[in-house]
Amino acid sequence: MEKQTAIQVNGLSKKYKGTDSFAIENVNLEVNVGDIFGLLGPNGAGKTTTLSILCSLLAPSSGDVNIMGYNLKNATHEIKKIIGVVPQEIALYPELTATENLKFFGNMYGLSGNSLSATISRMLKEFGLENKANSRVVTFSGGMKRRLNLIAGLLHSPKILFLDEPTVGVDVQSRQVIIEFLKELNREGTTIIYTSHHMQEAERLCTDIAIIDQGNIIIKGKPSYLLSDFNKCNDLEDIFLEITGRSLRD
Amino acid sequence: MLKYFASTYKDIILLLRDKAGLAMLFVMPAALIIIMTLLQDSSFKALEERQLPILVRNMDKDTFGIKIVEGLKNSKFFAVTELGNNDSCTIDELKLRVSGGEFQIGVMIHDNATNLLRNNIKYNILQQMSDENDDIFGDEVITLQQSPKIEIFFDPVTKSSFKQSVTSALREFSASVEARIIFNVYSSMFNDLLGMDLQNTGSFSTMVNIDTHYASTNNGILVPNSVQHNVPAWTIFAMFFIVIPLAGNIIKERRSGVYTRIRIAAGSYFPVTMGKVTTYTIIGMLQATSMLLIGVFLLPVMGLPGLIIGDNYLSLIILTISVSLAATGYGVVIGSVATSHEQSSIFGSISVVILAAIGGIWVPVFVMSPTMQQISNISPLNWALSGYYDVFLRNFGIADIMGYVISLIGFFMVCTAIALYYDRIRKET
Fold first, then answer.
1. What is the domain extent for residue A49?
2. What are B358-369's pLDDT values in tens digits?
């Protein structure tokens, strides 16, 4: 059975005002419903720019994006309703408690009342934060903040979830909880678009990946296929270094 | 509405939890009002109430000198120290004591001043008489002498306004004494010529009464003083300083990723902006209330006049809401346009100081040059201050201050529109 397309990107380019070069240039992607799509690349490759455009936070210079059949140019409102975003930064208010943060972001999604409270309780429990529900975020460890950051993007049960480096700076245990949860979420039908530096993590999690460097998609495909294509490489990290090189990036 | 209320509630909680920040929002303006009012009150009193120390050396010892010294002593403006006959104070010594700061003013009434004055008056009378009456003063030989002289020495740091008031006071006293001496000379002349004995009575200085009043429609006793100017002026200044925490809050939110999340979740940043406006407008209102209460109740305890706020409370509330909205609107636009906390705090504080300066917060607009008076009209702080003057001093109603209210709300709307526009174009770049 042919899979439904969740995201279709054609010829997407972005040149920031006042710069000479493209942050991303002629990017073409297709993500199917139910995929966990990994957008991998070194620092400054264009991952966050691509993600920001897909989330309608940034207008593209050219190109076309369709998300679940909605065109980004004229249906941003509809798109925003069906997507969830987990930014790279801890996008939470440190002086609010976990529950207060989640209630606020739930309200921003138009959620309220008992159903929101029930969702918050369930998710806090799922991420092992139920005992910290009424503690201020400023007192949380890095891993706890990351987990809460993730919950805040999931409150409205989005069909597509964008994650920008969701496990950066967390311990192994927290990373494990996050990865397992994302897998579970995907099994329930959520399409996940994910950027990361962690090649092992991407290999474990993603159904499809694309490697972007200097604003261009260099390679894309299923991790297993890529490993077979690059038979000299043992894992995704080897492939990544093979195609992006070993020179340091800004 | 859910998003708006959630945002307002969130910002209120965040402010309440930032005890130090909250205290700063109220304690600093309160300190500012008290200090500025006390400072400016003393300079107000310097002109109106405080007595200037004045050193007088009267070498005349006759009517002119005695009456001048009496006049100075009876004036409420001067604390007179008169050097006695035994003090051999020369002009140089007098200058030295004034320039040394011991006295702000030194007055030297020269020797023989009364006689010189009398002589010159007689000389002037003789000039008006025909030749056959040139003996009305007997055998006395009357020629024009030099004018009697009073020399005034000022401390070099004395303000020109003080100089003016002292010189005017001395001219007034000497004119009064001259009039008395002229009367005496004529009196003695009439006595000699006609045998009429004129009684030397009556006042020579208060022939015309000049009553001063403040043109206020307020029925109460309303005296414009340092409190009536400083409390509203520095309250407005403090209210506008809310741009610093508000702009900082917006920039912090934008840089933390929360902004990204809100933009996606809420669809627009508008309800969140309005939530902030509501929260900070409430803070501005509370600031204004506490500052005005300080003016009414605390300043009198500190020996200052109490603030009179009139009885048009509705006008006061509407005006205060408008001022608070204008201040928060300015904070929102700075927070939206600035790209860093440093930028917003430097631009925010300096621009508020400039708007305050040209708006008449520091120096009342009426003492500015005509050009600056025109420029002051562009400052929202000037609209606010003029509005408070109208409510407090002129007891104006809502209709009378509506021009200021509309201007302030218009300023808020323009600022908010610019902020939202910037929010939109940020996406394009």
1. 5-244
2. 988 887 777 778
